[in-house]
Description:
The chain is of the alpha+beta class. The protein has helices at 9-22, 27-47, 62-75, 102-113, and strands at 51-61, 80-88, 91-101, 118-126. The longest helix has 21 residues, at 27-47. It is globular.
Amino acid sequence: MRTSFNIPEDLLEEFDETWEAEGLDSRSRAVREAMYEYIETHTRLEEVSGDVATTLAFDYEHERVIRDLHDVQHDFQDIITTTSHMHEGEWCLETVFCRGDAARVRQLVYRLRDFDAVGRVKVLLLKPRPGSDSQLE
Length: 137
């Protein structure tokens, strides 16, 4: 199936350089790989349940969204335990450490991803493995 995308030129150039450096056969193959990875990450986030500990890392344009992000962080203070923030020009990098119900963490992730001024939201998820004696307490 053929399709088309509107992608900023600089992003496409960087994508092409990356898949070519990895030795993939084509841009189509690279896009398929990226889509599989995206689906896998989304599925993992959707399937987890119970108490989890997570680190969320996201970048954003400071002036465009800082007040809204503060509101979101206050809305989720029941699961946010710690935040760390750094400036890089007009952009910021924020890490948010969370502990709580997986459904609530998902809500936070999707809320952050909903802002146009947020570039990416990466999730590092820690959950005890089945049969493990570990507890997240």
